[in-house]
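Researcher: Following up on the earlier apo prediction. This time include the ligand. It's 2-acetamido-2-deoxy-beta-D-glucopyranose, with the SMILES given after the sequence.
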Amino acid sequence: MNLKKRILLLVVALIFIASLCVNSKQPPLPVPTEVEGWARNVSRNVRDYISETAQAHIMPKNFCEEKGLLLVFIHSKFDKFDARRAIRETWGQKRDNVTFYFLLGEDKNSHHEVQLKLRDESQRFNDIVQERFVDSYNNLTLKSITMLKLFHLHCSDSYKYLLKIDDDVYLNIASALKELTNRSITTNVLLGHIYNVTNAIRNPASKWFVPYELYPDEKYPPYLCGAAYIMSADVAVKLYRVALETPIFYIEDVYITGMCAKKANVTLENSGGFNCYYAKKYVCLYKQYFVYHYFEPRDIKKAHELVAGKKCPLTGSWQEWFYSLLY
Ligand SMILES: *[C@@H]1O[C@H](CO)[C@@H](O)[C@H](O)[C@H]1NC(C)=O
Ligand SMILES: *[C@@H]1O[C@H](CO)[C@@H](O)[C@H](O)[C@H]1NC(C)=O
Ligand SMILES: *[C@@H]1O[C@H](CO)[C@@H](O)[C@H](O)[C@H]1NC(C)=O
Ligand SMILES: *[C@@H]1O[C@H](CO)[C@@H](O)[C@H](O)[C@H]1NC(C)=O
Ligand SMILES: *[C@@H]1O[C@H](CO)[C@@H](O)[C@H](O)[C@H]1NC(C)=O
Ligand SMILES: *[C@@H]1O[C@H](CO)[C@@H](O)[C@H](O)[C@H]1NC(C)=O
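Model: Understood. Below is the ligand-bound prediction.
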């Protein structure tokens, strides 16, 4: 055989083997073009989900009857008992001028024991609001609109500010309060970590995948990172009114602090204390922040020991370097 023939044979063999490989593979899975729970035929009209008259499953006694500077709504999930315990024992401890409530939805599979445990927890701490929507990641926008509804109906005369925060965040609450009490203008405030330019993600594999039918533009309006943001009472009421007329978009922070805020003409304010992406859990290295995200309950406790116990070693000391390796 001459060289040309050999090469030809080799190529044919390779193509044959390659075709075997391709045929033996499963046909590729169909690429999802819809977001789970928000198919094209599902209503996105807020009024179909939010009722001002329906009774919540669980409501604290004397809800919002105290007055104060700050109302904190911690967005939790029905089964996150450990996260709530960690927060109550740390940054969510009772203090003057601040009230804490946990906001949850309902268990889609309605496990009876979980609900009993939840009622127990509520009797013990009187800080649980369980509203009437399925508690899922893709329903977080409904959770936030529910928060605005409750604030509008019961709390807007009692508190100057509303803080939305997730249950996997450590908050240095003393610093946050300092920032609030030091402000001269206390209305028209919407404060957090700004994302100025973000594209909607069109890759169906992403957690934040958005089909064109749900959001046709390429870019989102500027918005605040959803882990924690603060608004003044007037802004909460404005955002609620606008949300009632704005089709639900399942990415919570983009919807509330981006789309609704823009429609309500509320200007976003960036605060250096709110960070969003954050990998290292050793808070002493990042004293300038008061919001730390992606924390497990044990990270929250550890952070609190260091921050509230004033146990951070001096900046630049060998102890700081040493502990930063440990945590
Ligand atoms: C929407 O369509 C799916 C099939 O694509 C169907 O299973 C579902 O029941 C429909 N939902 C509503 C609310 O009509
Ligand atoms: C509560 O907040 C108000 C401002 O709204 C402030 O004047 C007052 O000193 C605060 N009280 C306490 C006990 O911190
Ligand atoms: C959101 O909650 C509504 C009301 O309970 C429910 O019908 C819907 O299935 C939930 N959607 C998702 C994505 O969980
Ligand atoms: C309070 O505000 C003033 C000016 O607005 C600023 O210089 C000062 O650093 C602030 N203090 C705190 C504790 O944030
Ligand atoms: C985002 O916009 C705000 C307000 O316009 C501005 O203060 C901030 O510097 C901008 N941030 C970035 C990263 O461009
Ligand atoms: C926002 O401002 C625009 C232009 O000034 C105005 O037409 C619109 O009514 C305002 N929206 C709200 C909710 O105040």
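Model: The domain at 46-270 is CATH 3.90.550 (Spore Coat Polysaccharide Biosynthesis Protein SpsA; Chain A).
Researcher: Noted. I'll compare it with the apo version next.
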